[in-house]
């Protein structure tokens, strides 16, 4: 039978920037507003892109730009746009990011730039990306609405690293939102690295001459507190009649959409009523960065009379300090931290008299103003973009590197200490808190069935200790049978009380799998006979199974039993039913780019393909076997990341046609994939199957999306799964048994490699870092 070709990979949007760096360069998916949109986040994201690219030429930066319906034009740096109110666009962007092989996703978060309640559409993107997530929180609300709190809580839980620009922001995240302090970094707002200018040539161009100039910059809206500054002008003008207050910036687009220019007109009217209209100059434009810097250098005193004292970030304030301007500000969060140590003057909220008094002092005493400017300019060197870009680069490096990288998992049998630590005279306990068995959750037949199988595979069958434990796990399975209801129970409390009369179909299927496996592979004839007898007594329950996975588990046990008892009628019936059902499901559900049994990927996925392959061989049905192989090729291709890592669908969400939810990745999926590949490998020793199994095995060792090892061969433990920001530190029976059983199935490939000539591709796979898809 010829090797089946893999179906063509699903067409996913990819970044095709012509200046993209070589594949080896780590890719950063940078998400936020971007040029040509005119807002603070767009300016910040564009500055980040420009300066990080300049400081870190070894990084490939792909820009995913938020786009509103009113946006016009584009920018060459943009890889892909995301319609802010188009939910599907967020999902499409996530697929493109995954397809690009991004090593890290960096989100610029601000309320108001994403669609959905409280900007919740962005969660549909971050939940679907496999790379570690970094979030810069431009606003950290101390009194969020319920919707805002839910969005922030999700982002905090999902992110590997959070960035804020102030100590207040960090304290709020930790104390109010419960963020892990180790995950929260303070990196201040970047500012231009520009020589100090005592006077701007723009004075001549605007015919300002030597008039003293006050200025406020940014998009206009009530949040600027301009009324307070205008009310201070009569007092200042009384001593400096030629004082000029320049208000630079367009009205915020959202405000224009809601009420036109009513706010600006109210300010004009206020100035006229106070008799200072001639002291105001309006520059009603959104200034590009070079123009903005020139405008800031023009002023003698920068005013930041913001009424919202909870404001965490102000880009224009940071710019004014970096350019060495004398600053008068209300004590909002960013100002309190940036202007500490006499870098600027803080005045009470909504206090026009205090603003006038501070401005008069600085105008009357030039030496005081110049000293303040020098202190501001010196403080600004700490936030110069080259400094900030390097800090961002260092943080991204740490996130990309994750843990310690891949750990070598020896081929020798992992220590069984972890199994014994989870086991007692009843059986194996389900869960752990860290490495310690958790008695609160008792036992289940699923894990005892797996443990029974483990004790009866490979070299463990020859170990007397393992055989003693095999009897305990067998006793649990036997005791779980409810003869009255003709089904196995599943969950037992630590005090040996059964918690249910019958278990799920899946748990019953796994019990039959263990019994069939024991009938074929148990170390002693007595235990093989016990297994075969219990299989015969209980196999009839599978006739009523409706769950495809329960049917598949039972068929795995039946197929194993047929290796020793090839004419067993019950076992043959189970294999026939499973093969017919799965083959029909495959033919019904498959599409041109979806070669699978169901419209979604859930759990233990590779078992469906494995069972169909086994059924085809057992029943000598070439169509069944080829269908199972085709499905497994498709699944393995889908479970391989752009970097060649094993990436199973996660239990955080089930993968539907066209998308995959990458977390929480489970050890059970790696074992299932290795076992299915071993089944396919037995047919023709193809390097394809050896490579995919090798990738799944290396997933345990740290060759995964978080570069963190889950398994430790010295202790025999395996963590419970791969989360968005690392491993789940708990050690449960399912995970540890999956690791040990995966090791047993990998022995098939290792033994085959030893028999191959040195030049054979299978030999080379033993030392290659990852499998390249064929």
TrEMBL record:
What are the UniProt keywords, alphabetically? Transferase
Citing just one GO molecular function, the answer is: glycosyltransferase activity
Q: Which InterPro entries match?
A: Glyco_trans_1 (IPR001296)
What superkingdom heads the lineage?
Answer: Bacteria
Specify the Glycosyl transferase family domain's residue ranges: 209-379
| Record's protein name | Glycosyl transferase family 1
Taxonomic source organism:
Sphingopyxis bauzanensis
Q: What lineage is this protein's organism placed in?
A: Bacteria, Pseudomonadati, Pseudomonadota, Alphaproteobacteria, Sphingomonadales
